[in-house]
Amino acid sequence: MSTRPYDTLVEHYERCLQEHGDTFRGVDYTKEHEVDIHYKVMLDVVRPNAGKDTSLLDFGCGASHMYEYMTRTGRTQITYAGLDLSPKFVELSRSKHPSVQYYCLDVLTDPDKLPDFDYIVMTGVLTEKRQLSHDEMWAYTQRLLAAVFKKARVGIAFNTMSKQVDWERDDLFHLPIDTLAWFLKKELTRHFVIRNDYGLYEYTTYVYREPVR
Fold it and tell me: How far apart are CA 83 and CA 103, in angstroms?
């Protein structure tokens, strides 16, 4: 039985993995040609002046497809690590990439077990709410963003579903941009970028500790 509301999200993704295996469907993407778009946009959070020792945590790494995208596209200057709440996904990722550091922990309950990183990206972590209500998912989102931002020395990136769509799905988390912007300004920082320019029915937000120099 689930003890945390967000365990329902973990269980959903584990069912996808069981049904579809180590594929884009196994992490609940529906269109294969859109997957690399997500990863490229997420990695654009890394500022151009980042050094070769820049560290990045793939929060909610799933089957480490982002790491494989980074390797395939030559993003080798970034030191990658992965984190997932699901032991099944972490076990799969470790079996494929034994040299990569992986974490299987809940940053909301065990923050001290996670070190700091230059950047933390969350692809698909906040796009589905499944059985959770909008208010439950928004409460979880606020707690999670606050906890993750504390672990990022430079900034974080995450995506969520847009409200500027023709229709909404009940199982997805459609978050008004204005609601998010006021939360970021009040609780985290006013240095953020919202991207809605890459053709999907979502938007990605970059949140930085410092403005661009």
Answer: 5
